[in-house]
Amino acid sequence: MFPNDDAALIYIDNVEKSHYSPGNGAGSTDLCGDGFTDVEVLNTFVMAHTASSFTLKFSSTLDSPASDESWGVRDVYIFLS
Ligand SMILES: [Ca+2]
Ligand SMILES: [Ca+2]
Predict the structure, then answer these.
(1) Which domain holds residue 2?
(2) What is the separation of C-alpha 26 from the centre of its chain, rounded to a whole number of angstroms?
(3) How far separated are the first and last CA of the chain, in Å rounded?
(4) Which ligand is nearest to the CA of 7?
(5) Which residues does 40 contact at the CB level (< 8 Å), separation at least 6?
(6) Ligand that lies nearest to the alpha carbon of residue 36, given by its number in the listed order
(7) CA angle, corner 14, sides to 6 and 41, nearest 5?
(8) CA–centroid distance, residue 48 to ligand 1 (Å)
(9) Contact 10/57 with Cβ under 8 angstroms?
């Protein structure tokens, strides 16, 4: 089950940019199956960056097997100007 702070984490250049933990029952649609509602989260980060590379890391504080708790990532876009 998804108690509070089973968080999805996003780091850019090793700096935490997002720490999202919706808790049990978040969302209104069972997008990924298993009978529990799921939540979609849109993250947008706009930042100045002058180095020639950067790191983008997805992590979590989940503490159960993926058959019980999981996060997914999709549609990652990086725009440069
Ligand atoms: Ca579900
Ligand atoms: Ca957990």
Answers:
(1) 1-81
(2) 14
(3) 42
(4) 2
(5) 27, 31
(6) 1
(7) 40
(8) 36
(9) yes
What is the reported pTM? 0.82
At a CB cut-off of 8 Å and minimum separation 6, what does 12 contact?
A: 45, 47, 54, 55, 56, 57
The beta-strand segments (E) located in 1-81 are 8-12, 15-20, 56-60
Query: What is the pLDDT, as a whole number, of residue 1?
Result: 43
7-28 pLDDT, tens digit per residue, is 999 999 999 999 998 877 678 8
**Number of domains making up the chain:** 1
Whether residue 5 contacts residue 22, with contact meaning beta carbons closer than 8 Å, is answered with no
Q: Is the dihedral of CA 62, 26, 23, 37 positive or negative?
A: negative
- How many angstroms separate the alpha carbon of residue 51 from the centre of ligand 1? 39
